[in-house]
Amino acid sequence: MSEYSALPVPPMSIRFDQGAGTLSPEGPTLTRRMSDLEGLFRDSEAWAAAVADGDPIVYSVVSSPVPEIDRELPQSITTIQPGTTAGELWMTKGHQHPNHQGEIYLCISGHGGLLMFDGTETRWVDMTPGTIGYMPPGWAHRSINVGDEPYSFLAVYPGGAGHDYGWVLEHGMGQRVLAGADGLDFVNYVEG
Ligand SMILES: O=P(O)(O)OC[C@H]1O[C@](O)(CO)[C@@H](O)[C@@H]1O
């Protein structure tokens, strides 16, 4: 037995129900409403109006019981609802891993995109069912629903990576993604 054998969760199988978007056994669930995305949309007045007008759910995250601690490998299913706020497609808050480590997402359903920013360069990965998006260490990441139906993906990440949301508020994400007349419009994060 290794020194790591005192495990917080035993070896197990985790059942994913694609129709219901649930994990079983299930760990913590997170619901992010529009009010949780303060300071992230370029049009703050449109954001405030959406908060006042029912504060809709933008996305939810269901996790397995694997904890976010060093050496563990947690998983979660994120579902982003379709929608725009003043043309900006609905998205996750986005974060940097303070303890720089990589992460993968697997698109399960819908159509999304993975926006990554290392402080200088921006990268975009189109996400359709079956696509694995890889985020290397040091790249902040945000997911965006670019379709007309809910966009769901599986995330698998090192439990000690952490979530730094202040990094995105301070540095932005390089670009923003808007719904254009003929597809996606990528605009400069600051000037867009
Ligand atoms: O943490 P954010 O930026 O709100 O985005 C949620 C997504 O990111 C994760 O925290 C994983 O990076 C997942 O739990 C979820 O997929």
Automatic annotation (TrEMBL):
<dbReference type="GO" id="GO:0046872">
    <property type="term" value="F:metal ion binding"/>
</dbReference>
<dbReference type="InterPro" id="IPR010551">
    <property type="entry name" value="G6P_isomerase_prok"/>
</dbReference>
<comment type="pathway">
    <text>Carbohydrate degradation; glycolysis; D-glyceraldehyde 3-phosphate and glycerone phosphate from D-glucose: step 2/4.</text>
</comment>
<dbReference type="GO" id="GO:0006096">
    <property type="term" value="P:glycolytic process"/>
</dbReference>
<dbReference type="GO" id="GO:0006094">
    <property type="term" value="P:gluconeogenesis"/>
</dbReference>
<dbReference type="GO" id="GO:0005737">
    <property type="term" value="C:cytoplasm"/>
</dbReference>
<dbReference type="Pfam" id="PF06560">
    <property type="entry name" value="GPI"/>
</dbReference>
<keyword id="KW-0413">Isomerase</keyword>
<keyword id="KW-0324">Glycolysis</keyword>
<comment type="similarity">
    <text>Belongs to the archaeal-type GPI family.</text>
</comment>
<dbReference type="GO" id="GO:0004347">
    <property type="term" value="F:glucose-6-phosphate isomerase activity"/>
</dbReference>
<dbReference type="InterPro" id="IPR011051">
    <property type="entry name" value="RmlC_Cupin_sf"/>
</dbReference>
<feature type="domain" description="Glucose-6-phosphate isomerase prokaryote">
    <location>
        <begin position="32"/>
        <end position="177"/>
    </location>
</feature>
<keyword id="KW-0312">Gluconeogenesis</keyword>
<keyword id="KW-0479">Metal-binding</keyword>
<dbReference type="InterPro" id="IPR051610">
    <property type="entry name" value="GPI/OXD"/>
</dbReference>
<protein>
    <recommendedName>
        <fullName>glucose-6-phosphate isomerase</fullName>
        <ecNumber>5.3.1.9</ecNumber>
    </recommendedName>
</protein>
<dbReference type="InterPro" id="IPR014710">
    <property type="entry name" value="RmlC-like_jellyroll"/>
</dbReference>
